Amino acid sequence: MTKRFKGIPLSVLDLASINAGSNASESFKRSAELARRTEQLGFHRYWVAEHHNMPGIASSATSVLIGHIAGATSHIRVGSGGIMLPNHAPLVIAEQFGTLEAMYPGRIDLGLGRAPGSDQATAYALRRTLHSSADQFPEQVEELEGYFAGTERVHAFPGEGANVPIWLLGSSGFSAQLAAVKGLPFAFASHFSPDYTMQALQLYRQNFKPSDMLQEPYAMVGVNAIASETEERAQVLATSQQQQMFSLMRGMPAQFQPPIEDIQATWTDRELAIFRQTLNSEATLVGTPDQVEQKLSNFLAKTEADEVIVNSAVFHQEERLQSYEYIAEMMD
């Protein structure tokens, strides 16, 4: 049974990081171990995200990894946070997630994003139409829904008639408004776009129209959360994710790095200015279990979210598991 934090289910976001000196095989083993442990702890969902051309992230073949995670667990919901729909033919996604739902009935979620999840060169390699794909996102979502409903000229087998809940994901107001109009659940990426959280949630709730899937708005927010025995250790553990952010900003993506004691020694003044607000945002919760619990409680009180998805990006697997265990202890 799903445990809750102040009445709110907590879920897991996993980027399937490839640690420095490691490989994708080890990443998938660590993800399966984390999924089994968080299932035992009472987390509600386990989502993985599509990224490409990033040596530190192993979740590029997202639907394949979802099958691996679902096969390693027994009841936790497993899904995408998200599939970047402009990268794919909607028919293929309907077939892939119809297959997953047939394998693991009642456990598969399909979260959709409109960003490419990559740079332009990678987008070209994926054969996307760069100038029009974002504008076509609403039509792509509608086409995908048609394959599940069986109303398209071409039929998805497996897929047609499958009970796969569709979520829209976003870091701005576009997907919030689209989710509202379509009556779909909405997940906002507050863990990396904290400044737009309240605006997007307001747009979603104010414009929501009931649908066959959802009668009331349902909003999930993402948080970065790292809990450790001491605040000092938690801050050190957080430097792995900070290094990952810096490497992406510099256009030099790398494998996920071990924590370092003094990350400020590696920052430029420009990077400090850019990341100071994000790293200190209300959606980044780093500290002792008590500190993380208070920060999470404050964030929920502000956002009134219906669910929270937690990214605990920690290099050492033992401390990564421990962070989620500390968070689980906060649940009812």
Features:
TIM Barrel, 42% helix
Task: Kindly describe this structure.
With 332 residues, this protein is an alpha/beta fold. The chain has one domain: Luciferase-like domain (TIM Barrel, Alpha-Beta Barrel). Helices cover 42% and strands 16% of the residues. It is built from 12 helices and 10 strands. The termini are close together. The model has no long low-confidence stretch (mean pLDDT 93).
What is the compact description of this entry?
Residues 11-298 form the Luciferase-like domain. With 332 residues, the protein is α/β, with parallel strands linked by helices. It has twelve helices and ten strands.
What spatial order of strands do you see in the largest sheet? Answer: 2-3-4-5-6-7-8-10
Supply the number of structural domains.
1
Largest sheet: 8 strands, parallel, barrel
Helix content: 40-55%
> And the CATH topology?
TIM Barrel
Rg result: 19 Å
**Beta content:** 15-25%
What is the overall pLDDT average? 93
Order of helices and strands: EEHEHEHEHHEHEHEHHHEHEH
Task: Determine the number of helices (DSSP H or I, runs of at least 4 residues).
Answer: 12
Q: Show unreliable segments.
A: none
Family: To bacterial alkanal monooxygenase alpha and beta chains.
Protein name: Luciferase family oxidoreductase
GO molecular function, one term: oxidoreductase activity, acting on paired donors, with incorporation or reduction of molecular oxygen
